[in-house]
Amino acid sequence: MAKIIVKTERYSYPITIDTGLIHNLASFLPLKANDQVMLVTNQTLAPLYLKSLLITLEGNGIKVDQVVLPDGEQYKSLTGLEQIFAALSEKFHGRDTTLIALGGGVIGDLTGFAAACYQRGVRFIQVPTTLLAQVDAAIGGKTAINHAMSKNMIGAFHQPISVVIDLDFLQTLPKSEFISGLAEVIKYAIALDSDFFVWLENNIEDLLARDTTALRYCIRRCCELKAGIVAIDEREENGQRALLNLGHTYGHAIEVAMGYGTWSHGQAVAAGMVMAAETAKLLGQFATADIERIKVLLLRAGLPTHGPDTMTAESYLPYMQRDKKVLAGELRLILPTGIGQSEIRSGIPSHIVIKAIKHSQIS
Amino acid sequence: MAKIIVKTERYSYPITIDTGLIHNLASFLPLKANDQVMLVTNQTLAPLYLKSLLITLEGNGIKVDQVVLPDGEQYKSLTGLEQIFAALSEKFHGRDTTLIALGGGVIGDLTGFAAACYQRGVRFIQVPTTLLAQVDAAIGGKTAINHAMSKNMIGAFHQPISVVIDLDFLQTLPKSEFISGLAEVIKYAIALDSDFFVWLENNIEDLLARDTTALRYCIRRCCELKAGIVAIDEREENGQRALLNLGHTYGHAIEVAMGYGTWSHGQAVAAGMVMAAETAKLLGQFATADIERIKVLLLRAGLPTHGPDTMTAESYLPYMQRDKKVLAGELRLILPTGIGQSEIRSGIPSHIVIKAIKHSQIS
C-alpha cells in the first residue's frame, strides 16, 4: 500500500493506493458507525461495484443513501447537480454528512462541487475508478460542472478528506478510457519530470497490459507530482498549478468544437500537447527531436498526435480564447520548454498558434 | 466616513460607510480603468441607482456589463444563478472579472455565490441597498441560494473584496423593508452587546425617522460586531458565528411554512427571537423581565413578537429539524443567556420548544 499526503491551506488528507481497498472500512477513515453518507455513482459502475462498497460501509454501521446518475459528461451540469441536492434534501442530510464520489472525472467533479456547495460545504471522499481520475481529477480539490460552451466553467476549490485509489477498478475499465488516462500520465512527464518520461518510454507496454506493479508505480508517481503542485499552489494563483493544464487549452477546443464525448478528454489533450510542443518550437524553445519523442510515446500509448481532420487550424482560436485560462482577452498558454519542464507564456500571437496547429496536422 | 476592516483567512477587506459613496470611484477600489465588471441588480433598484453607478464606473473607464433580474426571493435560485452565468459567458468575462452586487440580501447572496463559482471564484463587491444587507448579509462572505424547502441550502463562503455601504439608499427603502432590517439590528444587541441594546432603546425613534447620524452609528456598530465574529469564526466552525443565527431557526420555519415573502425575514426573525428567549426561560437561563424588554423594543420598532396565528406550535418542528443548523438529527438552537449574550445549546427536547412557542403566542 502507498500513502501520499496532500497538504492544503486548511488541512492535509491522504491518497491511499492499493488493490482491494473498497472491501476495507479502514480505506474510508475517518468514516465510522452511524455517520451519514450520500454515495454518488453512475449506472455503468453501480452493477459492478456498488454492492461491494455498500457491504463495506453498511456492514460497519454507516447510513448510506445513493444517487445513481446516467453515465456521461452531460450530467456534469446544473441538472446533475440538482439531482444530488434533491437527494440530500429529501433524505435530510445535515452539515455533518459525507459525500462519496464513486466514479471517474464526471462523478468526481460533480460530486465534489455538490459537496462544496451543499450547506456551504460538507466532507467528501473521492473513490476514482478511471485512470484519468486516479492520476489527476480526484486529487487537489478542483471541482466543477460544465456550462454552455465551456468545460468546468462553474466550480469551486474544495478538497476531499480522502482519496481512495483501488487499482482493481482499472481491470474493468474500457480500453479507450484507460488510454485516455494515459494522456494525463504522459502530461505529468512532459510538464514536470523527465525521469518519469523515460520510465514511461521503458514501461508503456506493461502499463497497457495493466500490470499491477507498473500501475502502482505510475499512479503513485503522478499522485506525488500532483500533491507537490497542490501544496505550493492550491488555487492556481502563482502559475505552478496551471502547468498541469499543458495541452488542455488546445484540447478543450477540440472537445467543445466536436461536441463533448466525441473525442475523449485524453485524445484531445494528447493532440493538444503536440500542438503546445509545436508552438514552443516556433517560439524557439523546444527541439524537434523532443516533439518526435512525445509523438512516439503517444502513438505507442494508442493516442493521437494531431487534432480531428474536420477542424481547421483557424477554427481552434475562438474556443481557445473562450477558455478560462485567458486573462483579459490575451492568449496565454502552457508550453513545454523541454521534456520534463514547462512554463506559462502570455501574449502569444494567434498566427503562431495557427501555424503550430497546422504543423501538428501535417507532420 | 467610517471604515471597518474585516480580517479573514485569505485576506482583509474594507467596509466603507457614508453618504454619497456610489458617486465616487474611490469607494470601489481596487477597481480601475479597463477592468471588466458584471453589475447585478434588480428591476426595482435599476431605475433608481443604476445610471448613477454606471456614470461613476464607466466615467472612469471601467467596462461594465449588466444583469437586471426581477425583484424577489424566488430569483435567489438556480434559475437566477443561471442568468448570471449566461451573461458572464456571453460577454466573455475572464477570471479577472469583478461582480458588483447592487441590491439587498437576495442580490448580494446570489451574486456572491455566482462569484464564488464562476471559474472557481472571481472577485466581487457588495453594494448593499437595504438595512438588512448593510448590517448583516453583505458582510462576512456567506453566499447562497435557496433550494426546494430550505433557505440558503446551496452556497459558499466567499468573501467580497469590498463592502460599500451608502446610507443614501436607506432613504428610498420601503418602510416594511427598513423595519425588517431593524430585526437583525436588534439581534446583534440581544446576542452580543447589552450596551448596544440600551442605545437602541434610547434611539429607536431616530432610527425609524432614518436620521443619518443615528443610522451611521447603528450600522457601524453592527458591522463592527459582525467583523469581530467573522475574524474569529469565518466558516461557522467554532460556534461563534452561529450566534448570529439567534431567532433564525424558528424564523426560517415561519418563512418556509408561510411561503417565502409572506412574512418578511425580519418579522420572522423578530418572532423567532422571542421564541428563543421563551425557550431559554423554560430552560432556566433567561429572565421574564428581559423577555419583556425585548418585546417592547420589537414592538416600538414595528416588529411582531409572535408567529402567525395560522401556525400551531407543533407545526414549527418539521421545518426546524430540516434547518441546516441541525446536527445528526438533534435539535440545536441559539439561545440568549441574557441581554447581550447567547450560546449554542444542543439536545433541546422538542416539547420544550413547542411549549416556548405556545408561550410566545399567548403572552
Task: Pick out its properties.
cytoplasm (chains A, B); Rossmann fold; NAD (chains A, B); two-stranded antiparallel sheet; zinc (chains A, B); Dehydroquinate synthase-like, alpha domain; homodimer; 3-dehydroquinate synthase (chains A, B); 363 residues; alpha/beta; amino-acid biosynthesis (chains A, B)
Question: How do the strands and helices of this protein lay out in sequence?
Answer:
The structure is a homodimer of 363-residue chains.
Chain A (H helix, E strand, L loop, with lengths): L1 E6 L4 E7 L17 E7 L3 H13 L4 E7 L8 H13 L7 E6 L1 H13 L5 E6 L2 H7 L4 E6 L2 E8 L4 E5 L8 H18 L1 H15 L3 H21 L15 H11 L6 H18 L5 H13 L15 H7 L10 E6 L2 E5 L4 H13 L1
Parallel strand pairs in A: 2-9, 3-4, 3-5, 5-6, 6-9
Antiparallel strand pairs in A: 1-2, 7-8, 10-11
Helix pairs in contact in A: 2-3, 4-5, 4-7, 5-6, 5-7, 5-9, 6-7, 8-9, 8-11, 9-10, 9-12
Describe the structure.
- Chains A, B: Keywords: Amino-acid biosynthesis, Aromatic amino acid biosynthesis, Cobalt, Cytoplasm, Lyase, Metal-binding, NAD, Nucleotide-binding, Zinc.
- Chains A, B: Pfam families: DHQ_synthase (PF01761), DHQS_C (PF24621).
- The structure is a homodimer of 363-residue chains.
- Chain A is an alpha/beta fold.
- Chain A is 45% helix and 19% strand.
- Chain A is built from twelve helices and eleven strands.
- A seven-stranded mixed beta sheet of chain A has the order 1-2-9-6-5-3-4, with helices on both faces. Chain A has a two-stranded antiparallel sheet with strand order 7-8.
- In chain A, a hairpin with a 2-residue loop joins strand 10 and strand 11.
- In chain A, helix 5 crosses helix 7 and helix 9 crosses helix 12.
- The longest helix of chain A is centred in the middle third of the chain and has 21 residues.
- The N and C termini of chain A lie far apart (43 Å).
- The model of chain A has no long low-confidence stretch (mean pLDDT 94).
- Chains A and B meet through helix 2, strand 7 and strand 8 of A and helix 2, strand 7 and strand 8 of B.
